[in-house]
Design goal:
Elements (H helix, E strand, L loop, with lengths): L19 E5 L6 E2 L5 H13 L10 E4 H5 L6 H12 L1 E8 L2 E8 L4 E3 L6 E4 L3 H9 L3 E5 H6 L3 H13 L7 E5 H8 L9 H19 L2 E10 L2 E11 L2 H12 L5 H5 L17 H4 L7 H10 L5 H12 L8 H15 L3
Antiparallel strand pairs: 1-8, 2-4, 3-7, 4-5, 6-7, 9-11, 10-11
Amino acid sequence: MADAVKEKYTSLDAKPNAQTMVKPGELVDLVEVTPLTLNDRRIYNMMLEHAWEEIDQPVVHHISKASLRGSHNSNDRIGETVERLMRAIVKVSIIQEGQPAVERVQLLGGNIEFEQPDGMLYYEFPSALRKIIKNSTVFARLQKEVMFALSSKYALTLYEMVQKRGNLRYKSSERFTLEEIRGVLGVPKNKLTTWSNLQMRALAPALEEVNALSDYTVAITPYKEGRRVAGITLEWMRKKPEEQSKVGRELQFSKVGRKARVKGKVEQLVEAPQIKPRPAWLNRAGQALATQTYETAKLRYPGYDIYHVESEWRNWAASKEAPVDPDKAFLSFFKKFAERNPI
């Protein structure tokens, strides 16, 4: 008897978790006909993640506007983003009848937004897009912390491109023509039309951030046809564990001064917040955390008594296994504490 044919592993078989989300590869390397913003891309990623369990089904999904707007107090941005996503037409590379093809689809279908600030957004994906997602077999696993730390849509897109390709066993580089890389990055028409402008304003800053905040070392090298730059070669290599640990630490600290740290500069861009001495009674609960951890907590959550929150964290963690990285664990607890106890 012939061996049973093993079913192909699809993107839908991959599951998101608390730290990461899954994005089908076709939605990573899409070409924007209608340009989107960094915030548009982040919100769309969150909508994909929230709908993941039934994303290939003709159902209406719902998500709270509060979870989409993040640290912004207004829902205006959400409405503007939703309207741009509804208008957005993208070109997706697919295989149709065994042949490579380009399919043009909309990113978002009809939706209903409840007007209350804490209301819900009900939304659905077009049938053509659902079919593409259902048939997807290549995906990117994105770390949410990195997605929110990157400061430009070019950096986020480059990060997604690398995450899609990073686990390929026999491939560590790929070539793109200038037209292809401009399309995938979502560079608007008539913008950054020369190689020097594209490299200086889009590729170089994006590369710097992705190298600083992702688990891969990435390189972009131009190649020429004659005297003209015709495209780029994208290369990636997974960082060693100690380098990945350094990235993890950077993600836990404040964005203040990050550009300087990324560039290896030592000058202080912003005066560190004044931290009052740690009370003696707290010493009995455990060894003090790093000074930079307290400074980061003070910058992220002004108005909170950081030592009171540390005490709450120590009490909560007392019955649990000791964390591998106490500083990271404390900042993670502080985030949830601030969400549950707004000032």
